[in-house]
Design goal:
The protein is an alpha/beta fold. It is built from ten helices and ten strands. An eight-stranded parallel β-sheet has the order 5-4-3-2-1-10-7-6. The model has no long low-confidence stretch (mean pLDDT 97). The structure holds zinc ion. Zinc ion (ZN) binds next to loops.
Length: 275
């Protein structure tokens, strides 16, 4: 993949309609490079629809990723909830493959009061089963657990990188806004550089050539993330992050999840291009 691509989480607001296909067309018109298809309320796309999405995206030169439903908890205490969670990741991965999406992003789990180590072991076990199944199906879409914004949610930087080291086919979704909200820090050049350094040390240089990033402004308090904000209304130093990404020659997708979607995606792209 050439350089960093910028795009939106979901169909841009200025699309003709809110369908995935009109979203892809709008991304191309705006001069952006990628889009994340939001299956966050459920995977409501059939096989024929997914094949058409792949065709349109290829024609428009837009790269895709997919976000799995929110209703996933691989540390649920009821076996049927685990099964349903695994099913949602698998279903997203199968449709993502047909869309020619390169990655599936998902929110792995909640601690539910468990020790982080216990939650980690559960997530690893049940995610391992998902990866085994996908391998049997010859589905090599990257499965990316996301760094989450609340301390009650499984998914700090170390946990996500540990999963990537231990399981084949897993790569991180680094949500810099979430990490900023969770820690109250990580909004400066040296802090951003330390994250990329960790990624490189744990996963190798190849991981920096295959990044998947979520970005937005964010409001936060003692319990972490409160809500997403537009970048300019937030305290997030996005230009410093972009400088680190440029200096480390990071490649992959930057998905903007600000409320204004394409406006901030364009701001990020334009800022990046001036560096
Ligand atoms: Zn997410």
């Amino acid at each position: 993949m050439a350089g960093l691509l910028f795009g939106t989480g979901g169909t841009p607001h200025s699309s003709r309609t809110n369908t995935t296909i009109d979203g892809i067309r709008r991304i191309a018109e705006l001069g952006l490079g990628c889009m994340e298809i939001e299956f966050v309320q459920g995977v409501r796309m059939g096989e024929a629809g997914a094949r058409l999405v792949a065709e349109i995206a290829a024609g428009e030169g837009v790269k895709l990723s997919a976000h799995a439903p929110y209703f996933i908890n691989l540390n649920a205490h009821e076996p049927e909830k685990i099964k349903a969670s695994q099913g949602r990741v698998l279903q997203t991965a199968r449709i993502a493959l047909l869309c020619h999406a390169e990655s599936v992003v998902f929110h792995a789990a909640f601690y539910l009061g468990d020790l982080p180590g216990e939650a980690y072991n559960n997530v690893k076990k049940y995610l391992g089963e998902i990866m085994h199944q996908l391998k049997q199906e010859n589905n090599r879409v990257w499965i990316r657990p996301e760094i989450m914004g609340k301390p009650s949610q499984f998914g700090n930087l170390e946990e996500i990188l540990d999963l990537c080291v231990e399981l084949e086919g897993i790569a991180p979704c680094i949500d810099f806004a979430h990490w900023h909200a969770r820690t109250g820090g990580f909004s400066s050049y040296p802090e951003f550089a330390s994250i990329l350094q960790q990624v490189k040390e744990r996963l190798g240089r190849a991981a920096l050539d295959n990044m998947h990033i979520h970005l937005s402004g964010i409001a936060y308090g003692k319990k972490g993330e409160i809500k997403h904000l537009n970048l300019k209304e937030s305290d997030f130093h996005y230009a410093e992050l972009l400088q680190v990404l440029k200096d480390d020659d990071a490649k992959g997708m930057v998905i903007c999840e600000s409320p204004n979607l394409e406006e901030d995606a364009l701001l990020l792209q334009e800022t990046y291009n001036t560096l």
